[in-house]
Amino acid sequence: MKQVILTIPQARKIILHAAGLSKRAQFGKGREAVFKVIDHLGFVQIDTNYVVERAHHHTLASRVPDYKPEWLDELQEDGRIFEFITADSGFQPMHNFRYSLPVKQGFLSSRKPLTAAETNLMNRVLDRIGREGPLMVKDFENDRQEPSAGWWDWRPSKVALERLYLDGSLMATRTKEFLKVYDLPKNLIPHDIDTTMPTPEEYARHVIRRELTALGIAYAKELAWRTRRVKDNLVKKELAKLVEDGEVCSVAIEGLKTAPLFMLPDYKNKKIQLSDDAFILSPFDVLNVFRHRLRDFFDFDYQIECFVPEPKRKYGYFSLPVLVGDTFVARMDSKADRKQRVLIIHNLHFEPVKLSEAAIDKLVEAIKAFAEFNRCMDVNITKSNNKQYLKAIKDRL
Description:
Elements: E1 4-6, H1 8-18, H2 31-41, E2 44-45, H3 55-63, H4 70-77, E3 81-85, E4 89-93, H5 101-110, H6 116-132, H7 156-166, E5 171-174, E6 180-183, H8 200-215, E7 218-219, H9 220-225, H10 235-244, E8 249-253, E9 261-263, E10 278-280, H11 291-298, E11 319-324, E12 327-337, E13 342-350, H12 357-373, E14 378-381, H13 387-396
Helix pairs in contact: 1-8, 6-7, 8-10, 12-13
C-alpha cells in the first residue's frame, strides 16, 4: 500500500480524535459513555496518586463531562470491564479478557522457583477464597516474621495474593477506598466470555489494532510497549504483514524525519473537526504516556515531576498538561484540599503561545469543571509565569 503523507496539523487531528479528545463528550454522556471510552481505548491506566482525583477517574472525566466514579464500580459489577496489567495496571473491556491470558502466562513463566512454604501458602489462600468468597489482604492474619523494610516489603499473604492475581488464578475488584478485593475468576467472568488462549499471532494483531485505535498514529515501539511482559510477542513481525495486506497504513509526516509510523486505514479520508475545547489531562492519560510523541507531534516537552527529585523540578510535583484545541497551552500543578474543598493550583505555567479571549474562557470553564470533579467549591491559584493571563482567569473565576 502507498505510504500516506500527512501534515503535522492533520496528524494532530487524528491523534486527538483517536484519544477521544476532539471535542467534549466525543463518546456521549452517562454510564454507557464510560464503557464506550474504555472499549475504544482498550485500556485506561490506574494510578494510586491521590493529589487530585486518581488517574483512571481523571482520564474518564476528561471525556465524559457528567462522569461519576461509581459508574466504574458498576461496570465492574456488571462484568463489562476488568482490571489487569499490560505494561501497567488498568481497566479493560471484558470481551478482550482472553488477550490478558498471554500476559498472565508471561508472569507465570518468568516467576522464580517457589519454596514449598510459598506454594503451600498460595494453596491455602486459594482454598480460603474458594470457601469464603472474596477477601482482602486485611482478612489474612499478619504473617510477617520480621519488621517491614519499606513500602514494597509485603507480608507473605499479600505476596501470595499478588502472585495468584498475576498468574490469573485470582482476579481483583476495588473498594471505594481503592483497596483490592480478590476473587476467583469464575465468579467475575460472565459465561459468554471467550477464555481461550489466543495464538501468538492473534495476540500480536489484537495489540496492534488496540493501540492504533487509541493512539491514532504510532511508532512500532509504542505498539509493542504494552506487550513487554510477553516474551517473543511478534508485534513487529505481524505489523509488517498487516501493512503488506493493507490493514495498516504506513505514514510519513511532512517536515519531520521520524522512525516509521503507522495508522489504521479508517483515518485516510476521515474528516475531523476539532472543537477547540480545553482539557486538563492526567499525566497517565493515553495522550501523554509517550513523551517523544508529545515532542514530535505537539512540540510539547512534558514529564511528570513526582518522579523527579524536588531540586530538579521545573513546574511542580503533579503538573497536569492543559490542552486547548490541538495545542498544549499550559501545565497546572494542582492539589485538591478535600477538607477545605479548595482546588489549589500551585503553579499555572503557560507555554509560549498566544491565547485568545475565547481560549481563556474555555480554560476557565475547564478549571471550574476540574474543581467540581475534585469535589472542590473554590479555586486558589498561587503562582503563574504570565500575569496577564492569570489576571484574566482570576477575574473570570
